[in-house]
Design brief:
Order of helices and strands: HHHHHHHEEEEEEEEHHHHHHHEHEEHEEE
Strand content: 5-15%
Number of helices: 16
Structural class: alpha+beta
Number of strands: 14
Oligomer: single chain
Shape: globular
């Protein structure tokens, strides 16, 4: 009856009790998992592991042979314990990461499971954002990879109506139900000409190719910027090596490479859906186009009977900055342990919510870093940061909130991602990409609702 505590004592651990990711394993982790599947009393075994190695207990419980024998009460207790540990600011980040990943296959209790006409769906908690005057923009340029960025200038105030914003970005667990429900096939969720063309397989790689061409030109014109991007953690090793190879190509070779790597055609899942670094149920979904993000919003609106949508960039910035105009969602000083950015050096997305010190005062989580989020707002046709025709001051009536704009007009992305620097994590920072872009494991979404 004491086999679980004795096994767990042999595992390398952090002060919080979780095994250390990236360290050589002793072999006892796999032994413990095997023992859990073989033990006569799965409840006692998992309960024993919970007291000594919570993340391993979660991994053990996720095994089919174990989970089907666990009591509902123990599963609830285990899930809640994993959530609590993932939100403990005093726990090591690696420990929070590991329990967050262990929670994914068990189901996050912070998401409510419901059933409707299109199957099951998960409903996130929505955080109320008060209406009123909010600051937008800044008066000083930002420097990003050798260029001065000015599209967030000047600082001004705008009136925001009350709205609600999801506490977390949409996770893989939530998106998986959209897939199971046939969301990619149902015409009713694709509500514009551009969206229907994308759904049918037309021009699904155009935006990605344009984005890669832009950076090919940038790195050819200024080769040291590639090294800066690599050394600062903004490029994973695989991407860095690929870019070095690209810079040796002629233009014709490069174009052939693009067509081979991004062939386009009908797409029926996010680009990185099967990549082990990004597909845990607790991680935010990445590699989705703006068209896919909008279709998901329409699907869950039909399911829940509530009007869910992407936030406007004004709403997103108001939630991130607050009325006091915070530089980052938590305050004015950057801290790589408050958000998953290139400076944090995780080199992957984190499970949602494992950076509790990065929450806004209202309780919105992960607005900076981890995954960059599509908004409904238009950025404009130009790629250069200085060329955003929908510039500041923000004016909602100037056409920038037109949902049926042509597919060659870029949409605003906010928040920066796991491989972006602290500059893009700033609450006032703006970027834009074509609505069919899904090249990098960064683009995701967060739900909003009016009133």
């Amino acid at each position: 009856e004491d086999v679980a505590p004795r096994l767990a004592d042999m595992l390398p651990t952090l002060p919080g009790g979780e095994s250390i990711p990236g360290l050589p394993t002793t072999g006892w982790e796999e032994t413990a998992l095997l023992a859990g599947a073989m033990t006569a009393d799965a409840n006692d075994f998992v309960r024993g592991l919970m007291g000594t190695n919570l993340a391993l207990a979660g991994r053990c419980a996720a095994q089919t042979e174990v989970r089907e024998r666990l009591s509902p009460e123990l599963l609830v207790s285990l899930r809640d314990a994993l959530v609590r540990r993932s939100r403990e600011s005093s726990a090591d980040l690696r420990a929070r990461m590991e329990v967050g990943l262990a929670l994914g296959p068990l189901g996050d209790p912070r998401l409510e499971r419901h059933h409707a006409s299109h199957g099951e769906y998960l409903l996130p908690r929505l955080v109320p954002i008060e209406g009123g005057l909010y600051p937008m923009g800044e008066d000083e340029p930002f420097e990003y990879l050798g260029k001065a960025v000015r599209n967030h200038m000047p600082r001004h105030e705008i009136e925001i109506a009350p709205f609600r914003l999801a506490r977390f970005p949409v996770t893989n667990a939530e998106w998986s139900l959209f897939l199971e429900a046939g969301g990619y096939e149902d015409e009713s969720f694709w509500d514009s000409e551009g969206a229907r063309r994308w759904k049918s397989g037309e021009a699904t790689a155009d935006g990605t190719r344009v984005g890669v061409r832009y950076w090919w030109r940038r790195f050819r014109e200024d080769p040291p910027q590639l090294e800066i991007a690599w050394e600062s953690g903004q490029l994973p090793k695989e991407s860095y090596e690929r870019w070095k190879e690209r810079l040796t190509m002629t233009e014709a070779e490069f174009e052939s490479h693009l067509k081979e790597l991004y062939p386009g055609g009908k797409l029926r899942e996010p680009r990185f859906w099967r990549h082990e670094a990004f597909n845990n149920p607790a991680q935010p979904v990445v590699g989705v186009s703006w068209f896919e993000a909008r279709a998901y919003c329409r699907w869950i609106s039909a399911q829940a009977g509530e009007d869910f949508r992407l936030p406007s960039e004004a709403e997103w910035e108001a939630a991130a900055r607050g009325r006091e105009g915070r530089r980052y969602p938590w305050g004015d000083e950057f801290d790589p342990l408050r958000a998953n950015t290139a400076e944090t050096r995780l080199k992957r997305t984190a499970p949602v919510g494992v950076f509790p010190a990065g929450d806004t005062p209202e309780g919105v989580t992960d607005l900076a870093g981890n995954v960059t989020e599509w908004t409904d707002s238009l950025f404009g046709p130009g790629m250069e940061f200085e060329e955003a025709p929908f510039a500041y001051p923000y004016r909602s009536e100037d056409g920038r909130e037109e949902s049926s704009a042509a597919a060659d007009v870029r949409r605003v992305l906010r928040g920066g991602a796991w491989n972006d620097s602290l500059v893009l994590a700033r609450s006032a920072s703006r970027t834009g990409d074509l609505p069919d872009l899904r090249d990098f494991a960064v683009a995701g979404l967060r739900l909003a609702s009016s009133g």
